[in-house]
Amino acid sequence: MNLYRKLILAALLLTLGLVALGAHVRLSDAGLGCPDWPACYGKITPLHAGGHVSEALAQSPAGPAGHARVWKETVHRYFAGLLGLLVLGIAVLAIKRRHETRGTPLLPIALLALIVFQALLGMWTVTEPLKPFIATGRLIGGMATLALLAWLWQRESGPSLAGMADVRPLRAWGVLALAVVAIQIVLGGWVGANHAALACTDFPLCHGEWVPEMHFGPAFTLHREPGLDLSGGLLPPQALTAIHWTHRLWAVAVLVLVGAMAVKLMRQRGLCVFGALLGLLLAAQIGMGAAGVRSSLPLALAVAHNLGASLLLLTLVVINFRLFRMR
């Protein structure tokens, strides 16, 4: 394995870990543990910032400051910075060795631009504290980074697909399955950004009804403060219910379409293993979603649900790569 492929694999694995770590930071309310960016209380490490954190805690015990939160947020920033360096190295090598790689350097350059945009979102998370569309944007950016790295890894290191069966009829299914999962990830990010994961505490009903009372207007207004509507009033419970219920309803579409895709792949020579993996990940995601509601969403389960979504996305990207490269 040459250096280029090693960097791609390292970046892919690091991104997968960052998705889980970012979910842990967000769900444990550590996203605002540092009030500035890129330093934390003007310091490069949590150890140097310890005195400032203690002072902030003394002034506002119920505020976002906290030694554990600072450590979580800072470690997340360290790993995000490392990912940026890896992607920079990938882009540089792709340009320098463009005649040796299996494709143009456009994809690595796009990845680098995405990483820069992710860094800006990280800064805006601090300067525009936890606005739902920014928090959701960070999740989308992380998942997009994961998907592009997976595609790049398959392009540079994937096995030869010559001689495989004709899979062209499955391509539309592959794209559709990837699209519905991507939409569900966005909806899931919106649920988390608005703290609506427990807006419905029963399953499969919501407040004892299949279609509870909901307010969709304020629920899906993008540019607003967290927990507030555009007028500055508190976001009504019916809006949180609408956010949660929409995510749950779209899960039915994911179950049907991705489940059908898994069955089709299991019947296809050369792709049956991917079909089984897709079905297993889908069942795990649906199960964790239901268990999260019934158990008041413990942190470990919430993080696992985020990681499961990233693995489902990763699997579908690999499947689509193979479907479009097979003849």
Question: Which tags fit this structure?
Answer:
globular, 10 helices, mainly alpha, 327 residues, 2 domains
Concise structural overview:
The protein has 327 residues and is mainly α. 67% of the residues lie in helices and 0% in strands.
Compressed to H and E, one letter per element, the order equals: HHHHHHHHHH
As a whole number of angstroms, the C-alpha radius of gyration is 21 Å
Percentage of residues in strands: under 5%
Structural domains: how many = 2
Which whole number gives the mean pLDDT? 89
The proportion of residues forming helix, as a percent range, comes to 55-70%
Shape: globular
Q: How far is it from the N-terminal to the C-terminal residue, by CA?
A: 26 Å
Detail the poorly predicted runs: none
Major sheet characteristics:
none
What structural class do helix, strand and pairing data support?
mainly alpha
Number of strands: 0
SS field, number of helical segments: 10
Describe the structure in your own words.
With 327 residues, this protein is an all-alpha fold. The chain folds into two domains: 1-158, no CATH class; 161-327, no CATH class. 67% of the residues lie in helices and 0% in strands. The protein contains ten helices and no strands. Helix 8 runs antiparallel to helix 9. The longest helix is centred in the first third of the chain and has 30 residues, at 67-96. The radius of gyration is 21 Å and the shape is globular. The two termini are 26 Å apart. The relative contact order is 0.12. The mean pLDDT is 89.
